[in-house]
Amino acid sequence: MAPGNKLAGIVLLLIMVASRAEAAGGVVGEAGSCMMEIGIYTAHFSIFQSESRGGEVFCEDLPDLGNTLFVMDYLHGSLSEVPVDFRIIRDVEKMGIFVRWKHIEAMTDLNERTVFYQPPVLRADNQLQVEHRFTEPGAYIGIVTAPHPSKNIVYRSVFPFQVAPPVSWGWWLLLLASLALLVYRWRRKS
Fold first, then answer.
1. Are 29 and 129 in contact (CB under 8 A)?
2. Which residues are registered as beta bridge partners of 117?
């Protein structure tokens, strides 16, 4: 394989890895909106930092510290018939996009890691709103729990997010590698 083709393959692989890294957790971005999957339930999920970002909507990572409003608009009527809770914990192990419920379940110090907890609440208006003031940057995990309306089953959504994350060099490195590939191919043709 020619060196230029190897470099192109590496750049393509980096792009695929970077795009996969953003598509994990219980929150999925779809065409300008965020959807949260909680077992059989689905909710439109939005996060606002109105003090610093006005009406800008976020799905997961939050750019700033401060007051943050999490809004879940229930898309299933039965979700308004069950008590839903909402918890935010510190991601001490830095599991990030790889976190799953089995990891949360194995934690013996969940209450110590908890920075916010909304006990189970029924919301007949099909919307759960919770507000929390973040005072420390870092990695967090959101956990939403909702039981089945008639069966002894509990559904959960686990989603990682960052608050005031440091500048990520990953995309800059990818851009630099792409630029290097273009320059290499241009010089090779000359």
1. no
2. 87
Cα three-residue angle 111-116-117, rounded to 5 degrees: 75
| pTM for this model (two decimals) | 0.72
Are 72 and 26 contacting, i.e. CB atoms less than 8 angstroms apart?
no
1 DSSP 8-state letter: -
pLDDT tens-digit series, residues 52-81: 998 888 888 898 999 999 999 999 888 999
**Maximum CA pair distance of the chain?**
71
pLDDT digits (tens, 9 = 90+) for 128-137: 999 999 999 9
Where in 27-182 does DSSP place strands (E)?
27-30, 33-38, 41-48, 57-58, 66-74, 84-90, 114-121, 127-134, 138-147, 154-163
